[in-house]
Design brief:
Distance between the termini: 39 Å
CATH topology of the largest domain: D-Maltodextrin-Binding Protein, domain 2
Order of helices and strands: HEHEHEHEEHHEHHEHEHEEEHEEHHHE
Largest sheet: 9 strands, mixed
Number of strands: 14
Radius of gyration: 23 Å
Structural class: alpha/beta
CATH superfamily of the largest domain: Periplasmic binding protein-like II
Number of domains: 2
Number of helices: 14
CATH class of the largest domain: Alpha Beta
Shape: elongated
CATH architecture of the largest domain: 3-Layer(aba) Sandwich
Oligomer: single chain
Length: 345
């Protein structure tokens, strides 16, 4: 009798611990970039509803912190608008993969009661603003391309990101590609910049809020965040010399210049598009995953989530103001997601 009781207890413990392990395996946690956060959250909601046996959570804390947690093994995946460097990939014992999942516009949003939406800002002007130089809204270069606008004699106050940011990486990659002044400054291309004479805030929503409450402010941020905040958006001069509004059509034209690497990490940058009607600042966002997972459940879930986002999820992305991924990029992303995962036995 005593033996039977012991066996029953042991069986119950196995069931309890087995269920606990199963529950842990079916929960995935990601963290990272605020730029693709709106669409990732929408995907997570839809995916969790259609996959009740799996729970995915994404914490929007910025690319820098998301990458840190990923490299430390604290999350199952990261989101970033800055691709991992080779040395960062090499440091991950389980391996790391970069999978582009969305693309978006980085806009310059501004706030001044006397300025209309769609102000034209020349490409010679905004690098100076973010270099901390004293530029005023009635600068002759701005006045020359906005002849019908009465420009205020007020300083432009730059709003920038505090901490490591993928949006900052994409923006400085653009500045470094099109401005000799930026190149000469030594600030370079980075997730973290020591910005001179600027108001620094955390995350894309923080940038939008700071611009919204700061008279004369000009800040860089993701398009949909700026639109939801009701901010005015600048028309930016592209490499061809045309002033382009931040629209889906102009972003799609820019993305047509994507060059997809056949081997190695799937890094794609278009820092200064050449197309005559291309919007000048576009950026991809990546899901960063491990090459190996210690659970078949997690392995299957992360593959399904990526496949779903690159398939059904793309229509949602467009509806929310993100850009449709070029077919070649989406196909290569899906191929990478389906072919190179493994499981640690």
């Amino acid at each position: 009798m005593r033996t039977k009781i012991v066996l029953v207890i042991m069986l119950a413990l196995l069931v309890v611990f087995g269920c606990g392990q199963s529950n842990r395996d079916s929960k995935l946690v990601g963290a990272g970039s605020t730029l693709p956060n709106p669409i990732i959250q929408a995907w997570v909601k839809e995916f969790n509803q259609s996959h009740p046996d799996v729970s995915i959570k994404y914490v929007s804390i910025g690319s820098g912190e998301g990458i840190r947690r990923f490299l430390a093994g604290e999350v199952d995946f990261a989101g970033s608008t800055a691709a991992l460097r080779d040395d960062e990939i090499a440091s991950v014992e389980r391996g790391a993969k970069l999978i582009p999942i969305s693309a978006g516009l980085i806009v310059l949003a501004y706030n001044h009661a006397d300025l209309p939406d769609g102000l034209k800002i020349p490409r010679s002007v905004y690098p100076e603003v973010f270099l901390g130089q004293a530029v005023r809204w009635n600068d002759p270069r701005i006045a020359a391309v906005n002849p019908d606008v009465s420009l205020p004699d007020a300083p432009i106050q730059p709003v920038v990101r505090r901490g490591k940011s993928g949006t900052t990486y994409a923006f400085t990659n653009h500045l470094n590609s099109m401005s000799s002044d930026w190149q000469d400054s030594g600030l370079g291309v980075a997730r973290l910049i020591d910005w001179p004479n600027a108001m620094a805030v955390h995350q894309n929503p923080g940038s939008a809020q700071r611009v919204r409450i700061s008279d004369g402010a000009l800040g860089y941020m993701e398009y949909s965040v700026a639109r939801r905040a009701g901010l005015k958006l600048a028309q930016l001069e592209n490499q061809a010399g045309n002033f382009i509004e931040p629209t889906k059509a102009a972003g799609v034209i820019a993305l047509q210049e994507s060059v997809v690497p056949e081997q190695g990490p799937l890094r794609i940058f278009i820092p200064d598009p050449v197309g005559e009607q291309a919007y000048p600042i576009v950026a991809y966002s990546w899901l960063i995953t491990y090459r190996q997972y210690d659970s078949k459940v997690k392995l299957a879930a992360i593959k399904d989530f990526i496949s779903w986002g690159l398939g059904e999820g793309q229509a949602q992305a467009e509806h929310m103001g993100f850009l449709p991924m070029p077919k070649a990029v989406a196909e290569q992303s899906l191929k990478r997601a389906e072919s190179v995962f493994g499981q640690i036995e």
